[in-house]
Amino acid sequence: MQILVVDPDREIAPAAEPLFTSNGWTTTVSDCRARAFAQAISAPPDVVVIQGDGSGGETAHLCQRFKHNPLTAGIPLLLVEDGIPPAWVLPHMPVDAVAAAPCDPTELVHQVQMLSPGNGTQLLDDLTNFPHRRSILDELERRLVTRELFAAGLLTLKASHDYEQDLGRTSLDQFVVLLSVLLRRNATATATVSIGHLSNDSFLLLGQPAVIHQVLATTTRDFEALVPAFYEMDALFDENEEVVGAPKWIVAQGALTLVEPGRFENTLQVGFALAEFLLAGQELAQPHAMAATPFEVIAA
């Protein structure tokens, strides 16, 4: 599989250069946007990753150039910004994916590898290609727990400040793709959204931007989506209170239940446990700062 990374910070390079080649993947980093466009036409890659430079308009122009040219329009286009692009820019970005938070091109490409299917005939959200994802789905089916409830459990866990102090526990396995629990389709069932964990609180979102926006808005409760999905996903795990109305956890209707994460060996087990409580119609509360356990018991 060929991945072309357009990185404006590598302008000192004399020409496009290989980043690495492994397992049949060849990744090229281009130092020049014009050269990258020409290269994409002469030898179309499977994926184009554009490293944004924060300029907004210039990056949007390049994205439009790729998408509006019939020779490159069909190539999946990923955008990575070193910071949050201006809110007015993102809705106009004709990209197929957005990477939230800064990340190195090498790391991003590695994540794209892990998210991509085994062959070109399968969709990015075909979970059967990934043994780890498949095992998660098998366990979900065994427990009769929905993917959405499992996602709610994981997101609730991420919102626990007490539990976050134990980085060894809260850090999700690097390649646990939240796609397996937040798989949603739009009304026509023609677009999907994949969510992959990059590092810390950084996530890679794969899918049409408008659909990503819709998924996040409909997956979280009591949250009015007014900003780009790129920003919303970051806000889900951001402790910055400046993000007005950003959800810190996902709840279900019913009684509140005590869960003690310390009883479990890893984050996935806690996610399953929380999902089972949600399945029973119980509700998980965000802990108060002085709570003795990550999830406080409150009478329904």
Explain what the structure shows.
- This protein is of the alpha/beta class and 300 residues long.
- It folds into 2 domains: 2-115, Rossmann fold (3-Layer(aba) Sandwich); 127-279, no CATH class.
- The protein has 11 helices and 8 strands.
- The chain has helices spanning 33-42, 57-68, 105-115, 131-143, 147-158, 161-164, 167-170, 179-182, 209-219, 229-236, 267-279, and strands at residues 2-6, 17-22, 25-30, 47-51, 77-80, 97-99, 194-199, 202-206.
- The longest helix is centred in the middle third of the chain and has 13 residues, at 131-143.
- The chain is elongated.
The 3D shape can be described as: elongated
Per DSSP E runs of 2 or more residues, the count of β-strands stands at 8
Which consecutive residue ranges, at least 5 long each, have pLDDT under 50? Answer: 11-27, 84-91, 113-132, 158-213, 215-257, 286-300
Beta-strand proportion: 5-15%
Distance between the termini: 53 Å
Determine the structural class based on helices, strands and strand pairing: alpha/beta
- Helix percent reads 25-40%
Number of helices: 11
Strand order in the largest sheet: 2-3-1-4-5-6-8-7
Order of helices and strands: EEEHEHEEHHHHHHEEHHH
Taking all Cα atoms into account, the compactness measure Rg is 20 Å
The total tally of domains equals 2
